[in-house]
## 1
Amino acid sequence: MSQINIGSAQIRSVLEMALTRRPIAYLAAEPALIEANRSWLAPHFLEEGDTWSLNFQTWVLQVDSKVVVVDPCTGNGRPHPIPQFDRLETPYIERFCATGVRPEDVDYVFCTHMHHDHCGWNTQLRDGRWVPTFPNARYLFVRREYERWDPNGADYRAVDYNDGVYERSIQPIVEAGLADLVMDRHRVTPSLEIEPAHGHTLGHAMLSLQSEAQEAYFTGDVFHHPLQLIRPELQFGDCDDLAQAIETRRRLVARGLEREALIIPAHLPFPHAGRLRRDGETLVFAPATGATGSQPD
Ligand SMILES: [Zn+2]
């Protein structure tokens, strides 16, 4: 578990799993770009042998006397075409409880989008049924994203790596009466607002936090590796709308610089977050210095 503080908000991570030592070549960045940025990329975001690691983790926020869960990972016991995600059995709930928060204490669950690794623990399997993991929470689903994944929705398009996710992780929440379908922009608490960040998926959103004049953005999969902020055209993996994804990254860069905000994406390894700054002509994503803790395993 790692901890980050922003104003009066306490932010803790819950790790489900990590994919380590991926070749940075997956990003298709030219070698000169990697060299030009090596000084701040290494050691956290560029590891030995020019590799990088992705965490699959949830953020647990305590702010405004509320507990908010962001992006509850893949979940246990689910079939998946990619072997590393197939039928996971991780001690996620035990790690979650180690934050001092119990699942029944959670007030809101927010999924930046509905890929398998961002909404899985919405539910868990009990007596052969998928039931809500956070029984007292309101689950905030952005309507545009919901309609993109609802098999009866106009925007629905199947992708094999998300097979069955709607049925296991979204539909049971709706049937339990715990889902709130919200607009692209939605105020959650005085400090927290959902905002559109489309592209990676059609209804992808981020959560912005403002507390005591400090700002942080939970950006989900707007980018997977910080080089994509330096060069927004770099793409990693599949994406619903590449042009929108690039535009969203550009907007995030402009705002992150202007507001000196801490940017906390879904998948970065420790210290999990960073701030954009200009170093002469060069744009730098400086790793967060305030995070404590490390990987739990
Ligand atoms: Zn993801």
Note: Residues 242-259 form the longest helix (18 residues).
## 2
Amino acid sequence: MTLSRNLKIAAAAALGLATSAVAYAQSMKPEDAITARRAYHRVIALNFGPLGAMAKGDIPFSVETFKTNSARMASVSSMPVLSYYQDGTDTDAGDVKTRAMPEIWLDWDSFKQKMETMQQEVAKLAEVAQTGDQGAMKAQVGATGKSCKSCHDDFRNK
Ligand code: HEC
């Protein structure tokens, strides 16, 4: 088999995967999509909370906890969160409430950019934890928190 044939097959496979991911996302019930994204943010926040408290000196610094929590954050943050913001989920779905602002769908590129920035900052948080350099870890908590706030300010209702 030639290299170019392999590449074509790989490209076709990748395209097939992308298409089925989109199809799946569109077939999610709105209440499931909203529940998924709220859980995504919530789990990341639960793991981030102690790191913020450590950075501020409110609780003793633990490199171990920092490593564990930042690794969990990196794992969860890599989930396909943008697909949970599928069309038609800009309002409450029955009992499932959302604080997502309609601006998300009007300015999708900016929303997407901010999500990717957060994912990069979280990945960096997990990386810097491996160095054990507390100063760098604290600085990266600040950068990560900023990436959360930057999106909430523009795209999340109070
Ligand atoms: C690109 C935008 C964006 C980024 C980045 C972002 N969030 Fe959010 N977040 C939202 C939106 C929008 C909601 C509201 C979702 C809903 O109610 O449907 C939300 C909801 C939340 C909630 C409430 C979850 C619940 O129980 O309903 C928490 C907590 C939260 N985010 C924490 C964080 C933290 C911590 C970070 C950074 C590590 C972060 N978010 C990064 C947009 C973002």
Note: The mean pLDDT is 90.
